[in-house]
Amino acid sequence: MAQVPETPSEGSQTPSEEKSLQVEEIPKWPGDWRAYLALVSGFFMMFNCCVRILSSIVFGTTLIAFIGGAPSSGVARRNLRPIFNTATWIDRQALTNRSYIFYILAVSLIYGGFYSLAFHVTEWAEAEGFGTEEDISGGSGVRPGNSGFRTFWFLTIMNGTSIIGRLGGAVIATRWSNPIAVHSACCFVAALLALFFWPFAPNNGAAIAFCSIFGVLGGAILSLPASGIAFLIPDDRRNLLGQWTGTMWSTVSVFALVQPMIAAALRRRFGMDSIGYWTGASLFLAGVLLVVAMRMKERKNDAAEKDRTEGNAV
Description:
Elements: H1 15-21, H2 33-45, H3 48-68, H4 86-89, H5 98-127, E1 134-135, E2 141-142, H6 152-175, H7 179-197, H8 204-223, H9 225-232, H10 241-270, H11 273-313
Antiparallel strand pairs: 1-2
Helix pairs in contact: 5-6, 5-8, 5-9, 5-10, 5-11, 6-7, 6-8, 7-8, 7-11, 10-11
């Protein structure tokens, strides 16, 4: 005689239903230590934690400089003008210095183009199959790719190797050359990498090599602008170095602000390779402008030296 399958009586649940109905008890405020532990754990596991940590580092280092910094005894302090006076913030003579203007344009192009490639390096690695991207929100662990290498490591490599460029560029510029010469050379080499290596990298190893070299060059490129201002500024305006540097960064910030929108438009309309072409063209043109600014400075120095020599001869 066939058995009729038992049906759960009213009020009873199958094991799967019972499991689905189980709800973890949520810690209540206040007084429950688990609530505080959940809050702290969530703080350190969120992506926003990175922003908080970086903000804390910036605040801490700035506070140390503010408390422990002292002006050099060899530099004459100038009296500050009223805060709403334009001369307090901008040295008008700087705006008539052609080498300074060309230099600002060069640095603006750098910040308008360099980060476009850096911000898209993980997407590029995934699109080319050089790495797999973790899909935390989807719960699948990884997204498809031909390599088990995680895409975030490409950006990590680029940032890590930039330390070499930041330190090495400063040493070379100080001992054997000048900041603008090193700056322009790094721009030219980085431009060639972005134009001809980025679109045609054949495999995972080549992509890692690209990120490593581009990171070294990027470290030098992004760390030398302030040193270049110190090289360009006339001797009689050195007490206004802060104004010259601040004016440069204020101008550059506009280009840095709009470059993500430019990169997004290029990516959407022309594809990933266009990011490399934009970065390469920007860096190459920046290198040209840096050379022009350096030559103007050298010619001005040569003319001043010639006048000084003729004056001594008389």
